Amino acid sequence: MDTYAVFQIIWWLLLGVLLSGLAVMVGMDMGVGTILRYVGRTDLERRVALNIIGPHWEGNQVWFVLGGGAVFAAFPLIYATAFSGFYVVMMLLLWSMIMRPLGFEYRSKLPSVAWRNTWDWALFISGLVPMVVFGAAFGNLFEGVPFHFSWNLTSTYTGSFLDLLNPFAILCGLLSASLSVFMGSVTVMNGAEGAIYDRARSLARIASVLAIMLFAVGGFWVHGMQGYALTSSPGAGIAQTPLQQDVALTDGAWFTNFHAHGLLWLLPVLGFAGMLLGLLSAVARRSHLAWWLGAVAWIGVIGTAGVALFPFLLPSSSAPAQSLTVWNSSSSQLTLTWMVGFAVVFVPLILWYTSWAFYVMRGKVKAEHVAADKHAY
What is the share, in percent, of the chain residues with pLDDT greater than 90? Predict the structure, then answer.
């Protein structure tokens, strides 16, 4: 295989790693925000839940930066097309993300009940909305996004915000939110005791069952869809534009890669296994194991979607032949080569310091310690 094509595939795989890291680490924090008002019935209980993720939530934002930076540098045409077409969605995501740090930092600054309840709801919204948007984005990739290019590769988005909220996208958004709630619940179990622990355990069971059902329904739904098939193009590893290919819509096309390479079926199996074993671990009060199995479930779900879509990254519903793929939307070989070098250094470094931070901050968060610490959230 051509060297350029190898680097394109490497960055497709690394993009999957970064999206999985974002889903696991940021989704965990947002899950805690989503369930905050359920697991915490009193102000002190909610403060305990917030302080469980307090040492980590800011550091976990690096996965957002890495994901956005990777798309910008490795697949600039994807970045430009998606950010211009999804402008309203991006603004919604941005404002919900702005609310999140404000909620953490301002919530406990005043003793007013109304003040703290307002920020609790802000944390709920800023936890739930981004994860629904994250899942809905994957759903829209399977449906196709309404955009096309002019002769000079200027993209034009022809849909509306409501078009992005189609039934399948909503299902994928709910799947994403369910996995986020599961991760948040087992995270609270890891750090809490008593009534907070029991409520989080109850939510973990509900969220995992819902995720299993939604993932199964989504699989059958995709099987009945028309998928995209690349019928002609300059080929992998050749500099090209989206104006140089032909794409056909065919029944069952999203399963082509799985039928061609049987081992790829291990990815959806991994997703189901992570959810089911995570459920059993939460029931058995093995919350740390449940957390790792939740991460496995995320990897299985995102891996399944990525393999089904490959080589497509942003299919076009209004002009299928102008869909963006791994081959026609990547940066130059030189850029990808330099980026691989940086990734080899910094991705392991991020994994190391994240693991170190969790190891140092391990243990239960005591309500009396939170109450006595004026610097606690």
Answer: 58
For residue 69, the surrounding DSSP H or E stretch is helix 62-74
Q: Please, what is the end-to-end C-alpha distance for the chain in angstroms?
A: 53
8 A C-beta contact, residue 377 and residue 107: yes
Strands 324-325 and 226-232: unpaired
Hey, where are the domains in the chain?
A: 3-362
CA–CA distances in Å: residue 193 to residues 126, 180, 232, 284: 25, 21, 59, 15
Q: How far apart are CA 216 and CA 197, in angstroms?
A: 29
Instruction: Decide: 199 and 185 in contact? Cβ < 8 Å.
Output: no
**Token code pair at residue 284:** 């058995």
Q: Would you say residue 321 has pLDDT above 80?
A: yes
What is the model's pTM?
Answer: 0.92
State the Cα–Cα distance between residues 315 and 229, nearest whole angstrom: 10
| Residue located via tokens 């409520």 | 199
217: left (phi over 0), alpha (psi -120 to 50) or beta: alpha
Residue 20 identity (one-letter amino acid): S
More confident residue, 369 or 35: 35
- Summarised one tens digit per residue, pLDDT across range 270-305 is 999 999 999 999 999 999 999 999 999 999 999 999
Pairwise CA distance, residues 212 & 271, whole Å: 9
Q: Which amino acid is at 191?
A: G
Helix runs in 310-376, H state only: 333-360, 367-372
Percent helix, strand and coil across the chain, each to the nearest 5: 75, 5, 20
